[in-house]
Amino acid sequence: MLHPVLLVAIGGALGSMARYGLSALVIRQVNPVHFPWGTFSVNILGCLFAGIFLVISEQFPALNQEARLFIVTGLLGGFTTFSAFGIETLSLIRRGELLIAASYASLSVIVGVCAMWLAYSVIKALLHA
């Protein structure tokens, strides 16, 4: 059994590497001139994963604290990028791109919550089928 700090650190490192890789891949594919597609994609996918984990943890309450620390605090904490989201939104505002900033902030929250709801609903339905 690893120390909780090590579980979070290992999960965070893996999540951060995944965030970097996925964001770089999206940027290469989309060439985000104004809209930060890399961070947006990572945040939405992170919300999907969080929704899936929420159902799993509800269905299997015996899931130990170590798994929760590794997956939620570490892996998903390192993967999602709301600190980068804040910096990018502020940068858009400072450049005077208020419509893009508002669109980015609104879509990130709305689509992220919808992605989590979708994942939660689908996985819960599959487990009860």
UniProtKB/TrEMBL annotation:
The chain crosses the membrane at residues 39-57, 69-87, 99-123. GO terms for cellular component: plasma membrane. Na(+) is not transported, but it plays an essential structural role and its presence is essential for fluoride channel function. Na(+) binds at G77, T80. The keyword Transmembrane helix applies. InterPro entries: FluC. One of its GO terms (molecular function) is fluoride channel activity. Keywords: Cell inner membrane, Cell membrane, Ion channel, Ion transport, Membrane, Metal-binding, Sodium, Transmembrane, Transmembrane helix, Transport. It is found in: Cell membrane. One of its GO terms (biological process) is cellular detoxification of fluoride. It is a multi-pass membrane protein. Pfam families: CRCB. Belongs to the fluoride channel Fluc/FEX (TC 1.A.43) family. NCBIfam families: crcB. Fluoride-specific ion channel. Important for reducing fluoride concentration in the cell, thus reducing its toxicity. This is Fluoride-specific ion channel FluC. It comes from Alkanindiges hydrocarboniclasticus. The lineage of its organism: Bacteria, Pseudomonadati, Pseudomonadota, Gammaproteobacteria, Moraxellales.
